[in-house]
Structures are given as structure tokens and as C-alpha cells.
Amino acid sequence: MTPKICVKNLSKHFTAGVSTVQTLDNVNLRVNDGEFVTLVGPSGCGKSTLFNIIVGLLPPDEGLLLIDGEQQPHDHLLGQVAFMPQRDMLLPWRTVLDNAILAAEIDGVARATARQRAMDSLDRFGLGGFESHYPSQLSGGMRQRVALMRTFMFDREIMLLDEPFGALDALTRALMQRWLLEVWEGEKRTVLFITHDIDEAIYLGDRVLVMSARPGHIKLDKEVALARPRAPDIITRPEFVELKRELLATIEDESLKAFAAMNRSVSDKEAGGR
Amino acid sequence: MSRRSSIGRFTAQLFALLAIFVAWEWSVWLFEISHDKLPPLSVVLSTMWFDRAPLAAAVGTTLLEAVLGLMAGTATGVVSGIAFSRSRLLERMFLPYFVASQAIPIIAFGAIIIMWFGNGIASKVIIALYLSFFPVAVNTLRGIRSVGEGEIGLLRSFGASPTAILFKLQLPAALPSIMTAVRLGASLALVGAIVGEWFGASQGLGVVLLMAMFDYRIPQLWAGILLTGLTGVSLYAAIVFLHKRIAWWQVEA
Questions:
Q1: Does the beta carbon of B175 lie under 8 angstroms from any beta carbon of chain A?
Q2: Contact call for B158 and A107, based on CB within 8 A
Q3: Sign of CA dihedral A230, A236, A238, A243
Q4: B157, A79: Cβ pair inside 8 Å?
Q5: What is the pLDDT of residues A60-76, one digit of tens each?
Q6: Does the residue A254 lie in any domain?
Q7: What is the rounded distance in angstroms from the CA atom of residue B110 to the CA atom of residue B199?
Q8: Residue A129 contacts B, CB cutoff 8 Å
């Protein structure tokens, strides 16, 4: 089967003044049609950069990006992938309803049509009755749901979600995860989901990819052999715990490397300052 | 701001104004101030009442000039702000001259404007435009530039064109700072209209002030001053009201 998304030997560096930072180094990954793949890694490993490249916002230095087996020039995918960044980025002057239809509206769907469609799915996103509220009147969890709804309303086969629940408290986060799975199981879109929470990565994913410390590459690619639909208490099952143990070992290794690199650069700076 | 406390504040302000008026009236009698220096408020008010028809016409003319000038200035400011935000070259070429233009006092070339555009309403509108466009241009540019890379990236990921990004993201985001500049522009536009009238006009508050000064009609001069203040405050209040209506999500002080 041709994978929906295929990333081959992707590399990216950034230059800031005289110093060069290699952010991604030879990233290879594939996501099959309808698959939910989660991506975990230490902070600063280039996960968001990888997303920006797949979305088409950044050109890679090297490497290929194939969608349905076809090679994509760098900005070809703008408008082709439903992307949700870390921050909700709701527009304060738009109501919940009008924020939810923003992507669809830009896509050329008539406002009235888009609004009607959004009204019909408000309940599914737990936003029923809030259509005329403004973002400043909402809690963090609700704002995040509006942002997710905006992403879902942008009718694309591929969804890239960058730590959508990162800023939420543990309880809200657990509820949102369950809810996301329900919505996704109804649509079966191809999802690539960034998180730094291992439980979340296992609970949501068909497969978990672990990214290394910078320069980032895919360190581990692990199938999650847990049946769907998954009950919330699945996280206490032995298979889950066993998988978590294995992932933790790899991630901890990488986090330590990232931490050491950070300390090194701090002491370099201190040494340079003397 | 709760309704109650804003009513309380309004009452307090009204009270202070009344106190000033009473102090004005009494101190003229009490200290036997010459009416040529400061006529009592009662005399000013009765003059105002006596001349109400021409004074109302003067306020109407000046207000019209200021409002038209402010609208033209806002339009010019917003369009040039957008142009600068689109092109660094345009900004580099013209922004320094915009800044320099503000360093030339209108007094220096007001006469030329009257010669070019006549002593009717057009010349005053142009002077008001000249005084009010600059803050709007700068704040439009600033507001557009303040939109984050992330927000722009998000809209681009939806396939938005630069025009869509401008109209759906950058301009709405700039609206609060544009409205702040329009507030400032409102006061400047009124000054522009009156200064324009000094250089040559047949009607308006500027004419009222100038004539009263030349003829040494002190109560008329004070009537003109009070009405100019009232016009300025009303215009400002109208813009603040508008600001709260159209850019309610962020009202800068």
C-alpha cells in the first residue's frame, strides 16, 4: 500500500548570525491512509519544524516529501493539509462560529454554507450554545476545541496536530483525548499528532514515533497493538505499561542528551563571557 | 467597567465642571476682574444665546470640515499604511518624507493651500487631512506588523492569499491601533479646520474667533472658545464611542 505521507531523508538547519543549528537530520517516516500516528520527543527536537515543512510553510534543505506516492514541491501543500499549531490562535474579533469556519471560508466555502455546517457540528465539539461567544469568554479547553473544530472543518484528508492539548490541565486533557478519538473514529482521517506526553501518545496512536534529541531524526517506530475503541482505563493494562516502559527508556535517553546539550551550550556561553 | 461606576464617574465630572463655572462667575465679581480680561460666564452665555444662529452655523461648518478632513486623513493613512506594509521599498522611499512633513508647521504653508484650493471648505478639509493622516498611517503599519508569524503561517496553511491574509487577519488586528490614531487625529483635524479658517474663510469657528479678536468683542471671543472646546470634546467622544463599537476587543487607553 502506498503510504499517505512519506518523508524521506529530510534535513533542515537554521542559521542565526554566525552559528548554525541542525534541527532535523535525515528524518524518515511514513503514515498510512487513515492511520493515527503520534510523535514524541524531547523539547526542541524539531517536531514543530518537521510539521512546518510538511504543511509547506518551510522549505527543507534536503529530502523528499511524498503524498500518496507523489513528490511535493515545498509550498505545494499550502491549503492541502489541515494544520493545528500549538497555540489556538483564535481571532478575538470573531465569534466561536466564525472562528470555526475560518479555514473553510478561506478555502472558498460560502459563509452561509460554512456557518450552517458549523452549527450542525457544534454539539459534536462540545460547543453547543456557545456559537456567539467570543474567544475571550471561553476556558482554555473550550478554546482548544474551537481550534480543533476549525481544523476539522477544513475538509482535508491529512491532519497535523501540534500538541493540541499541551496547555490543558490533566483532567480536561483526558476528556479531550477521549473525545478526539471518538470524533476521529467517525471520520478516519490520516492524523499525525505531536505530543510530549507518552501516555497520550500510546492512548491515541496506532503507532508511536520517537524523535531523537537535536538534530532530530526518528529513533523508534513502535506499533501500538491495542484494540479500538480504547477505554480510558487501558493505560493500566500490562500491554500498555510494557510499551510505555520501552518508549520511556528511549525518550529518557534522548531527553538526557538534550539536557546535556543545553547545559553544554550554557557553559560554553559562560566560558565565552569570561 | 461596571455601569454603575461609569455613571458615578460621569456625575463626578459634571460636578467638577459646574464647580469651575461657579468659580469663574464668582471670582470675576469677587476680585473685580475687568470684563475685558475675563467676562463673567453669565455674560458669555447670554452672548452665546443672542448669537445662537450664526454660532450654530459656525460650529456646523467647522465640524463638517474637521469630520471630512478626518475621514480623508484616515483613508489616506490606512491606504499608505497598507502600502508600506506590503513594500519595504515604498516604506523606505516615502516614510521619511511623511515624517518630515510633520515637522513643517501648517502655519508655514496654510496660505498656499488657500490659494490653491480657494477659501471654501475644500482647503480646510485638506489641511485637516494633512494633520490627521500621519498618526493613522504609522499606527496602521504598526498594527499590521504586530501580527505574529504564527498567525500568518496558520492562514497560509489554509491556502490564504496575501489579500485574504490582509483582510481577514492583518487589517482587523490593526483596527484597535488604527482607532487609537483616529482619536488623536480627531483633535488634530479640528485644529486643522480652525487654522485653515484663519487663513481665509467666510464662516466657521476660526472666523468667529478671529473677528471677535479684531473687533475686541471679548464675550464673543469667549463664546467661540467655549464652543470650540465643546466641539472638540464631542468629536472625540464620538470617536471613542465608534472605537468601542468597531474594535471592542482591544481598546487602548
A1: yes
A2: yes
A3: positive
A4: yes
A5: 999 999 999 888 887 78
A6: no
A7: 6
A8: no
- A100 and A7 in a common domain: no
Contact call for residues A216 and A254 (beta carbons, < 8 A): no
User: Residue B12, CB half-sphere, CA atoms under 13 Å: how many?
Assistant: 6
> Chain B residue with minimal CA distance to A79?
B159
Question: Which range marks the domain in which residue A121 is found?
Answer: 89-155
The distance in angstroms from the start CA to the end CA of chain B is 13
pLDDT at B253 over 70: no
Find chain A residues with C-beta within 8 A of B171's C-beta: none
A25, part of any domain: yes
pLDDT one-digit tens code per residue, B153-210? 999 999 999 999 999 999 999 999 999 999 999 999 999 999 999 998 889 999 999 9
Locate the DSSP E strands across chain A. 5-16, 19-31, 36-40, 62-67, 70-71, 82-84, 158-162, 190-195, 207-211, 218-223
Q: Alpha-carbon distance B188 to B72, whole Å?
A: 13
- What is the H or E stretch that residue B133 is in? helix B121-145
Amino acid letter, residue B126? I
Taken as a whole, chain B contains a residue count of: 253
Among partner residues B157, B158, B249, which is closest to A136 by beta-carbon distance?
B249
Taking the CA of residue B158 and the nearest CA in chain A, the distance in Å comes to 4
- Same-domain check for residues A123 and A168: no
Could you tell me the three cell numbers for A271? 566560558
Whether B75 has its CB under 8 Å from any CB of chain A: the answer is: no
pLDDT band of residue A223 (cuts 50, 70, 90) is very high
Paired strand residues for A11: A62
Please report, for the domain that includes residue A56, its CATH number: 3.40.50.300
B151–A79 C-beta distance less than 8 A? no
- Domain assignment of residue A135, yes or no: yes
Residues with Cβ within 8 Å of residue A114, at least 6 apart in sequence? A101, A104, A105, A153
Residues A29 and A104 in one domain: no
A75 and A177, same domain (yes or no): yes
Whole-angstrom distance, CA of residue B182 vs CA of residue A5: 50
Residues A103 and A42 in one domain: no
Tell me, yes or no, whether A30 lies in a domain: yes
Identify which of A81, A85, A93 has the shortest CB distance to residue B249.
A93
Which ipTM was obtained for this model?
0.87
- Whether residue B222 contacts residue B39, with contact meaning beta carbons closer than 8 Å, is answered with yes
Q: How far is CA A222 from the centre of its chain?
A: 17
Q: Please check whether residues A74 and A168 belong to one and the same domain.
A: yes
- The beta-carbon neighbor of B158 closest among A87, A91, A106 is A106
The residue behind cell 487625529 is B185
Number of domains chain A contains: 2
Residues 133 through 162 of chain B touching chain A, CB cutoff 8 Å: 150-151, 153-160
